[in-house]
Protein: DUF4331 domain-containing protein
Organism: Nocardioides ginsengisoli
Amino acid sequence: MSSHREAPEIAKDPVADSTDLYAFVSPDRPDTVTLIANYIPLEAPDGGPNFYEFGDDVRYAIHIDNDGDGHPDVTYELRFRSEVHDPETFLYNTGPITSLDSPNWNRRQHYTVTRVSGYGEHAVRRVLATDLACPPCNIGPRSTPHYAALAAAAIHPLPGGRRVFAGQRQEGFYVDLGSIFDLGALRPFQNLHLIPMAAAPGINGTQFTNVHSIALQVPITDLTRGHVRPTGVSDNRAVIGVWTAAYRRKAIIRQGAEPDVESGPWVQVSRLGNPLFNEVIVPMGDKDRWNALPPSADAAFAKYVAHPELARLIPVLYPGVFPNLAGLTAARADLMAILLTGLPTGVIPGFQNFTGPRPADLLRLNVAVPPATKPSILGILGGDLAGFPNGRRVRDDVTTIELRAIAGATYPLVNASYTPDAAAGVVTDGLTDSQAGSHVSYLDTFPFLGTPFSGFEHPAA
C-alpha cells in the first residue's frame, strides 16, 4: 500500500515497481500541474554500499488521457543511464559530495526526458532534455553534508515552462501496514475485531523509508485537450486522467560475465492510477495480469470494484459494527464512479471529474479546481474539492478516504435512501500526516516530497 509490492511478480522487481502516484494543481505555480510517480518501495536509508537508483533497463512513463478513452494523449518518458568513474573502488563516494559534478561521487545517474503526443503508430516523440543529473542518495553528514542543496540543484528546467526532478525522496505515504495485513485489523478499532485486542494508535509501516521519485511540473495547457486552460469546473476539457507505468524489453539474453543483451519491443510490467487499486481491489489471481494491461482494458476488472471483497469482509471482521454495510448487496456505483469513470456533474455540488463511461483506473484531476487555501487531508470527504479523489496531493490520507468509501460512507451519493453505519464515517487506520508522524515531512514547493532520510541520522523505528 498504496502500491508497494502489490503483485507477486512486480514485488520481485522493485526498480520497476510504482509505489505512489500524485497529480494536483501546483500550489506554488497554479498555472501548472505537478505529477509525481514514485518507484522502488520501502528503501532503507542505510542502503550502502550499493545505494538505490533507477533502472537503466527500465522505461518509466507518466501518461495523461484527456479524452476519456483510456489511452494516452500525452506521455512523459524517462530513461536513465548510470556511470562509474572509478571501477577500482567499491565505494559509492570517496569523499564529501558537495555538487552534482563532484569528483568524489563515483556512481552517478543521468536521464533523458521525452514528451510523446498520442500513442501507437500515431505517436509523435520530442526529446526535451538529455544528460540531466540525478542527485545522489542521502548517505550521511560526511558524504552528503548539504543534501537539500544537492537536491535543489537537481531540479532542472525544461522547454515550455516545465520542470523535472528525478531522485531519492522521503516516503510521504503513511499507512499501518502491519495491522491492516494482520487479518484486516485497524488498531483504533481492534477491540471490536473478530479477534479482539486492546485499541491502540496506528503505527506507520513506511516510517523512516525513502523512495525514488520522478516529479514533473508542466503547464496545464500542456495536458488538456485542445491545449486550453479551462476556468469552469463543469468544462469536460478540465478533466485529465493520469497513470504511471514501467516497461522492460521483451527479450533478454544473459551472457554470464558479459553484459546482458536486451531486444524487442517494450512490455509493460507495472502501472498505477488510483492508490490501493491493485493492492486491495484486484484479487491475487489477476494482479500480475492487471499490471500488464492498459487502463483501456479495465472493464475486465470492473466487477471487483462493483462488489469489492473488502466490503464483504469488514462486517465479518467487525461483528455488529457495520450492519448496514452487511446488508448492502447492490453493485457499488459510488466506487465505480470514484475509481473507474470519475464523478459526473450533480453528484457533488460544484464539482465533477467525469472522463466518460469507459471504465479505466485513472487518477482523475479537474484542473479548473484551484489549490485549496485550507487543505483537508480527507480531500473531498473533508469538503476540500482540490484533494483526493480529485487527483491526489502528497499529504492526502488516501487510506482513510478509501476505507470510509468502501465501508459505505460514499454510497448515499448514488442512493440517498441508504444510511451508512456510524462507524463508516470515522473508520481509520489510526494515522494522519502528523501522527505518521513526527518523522514525515513535506515541502511547500516542487518537488513537494521531503528530504530523504540518511543512513547515518535516521532514527530507529
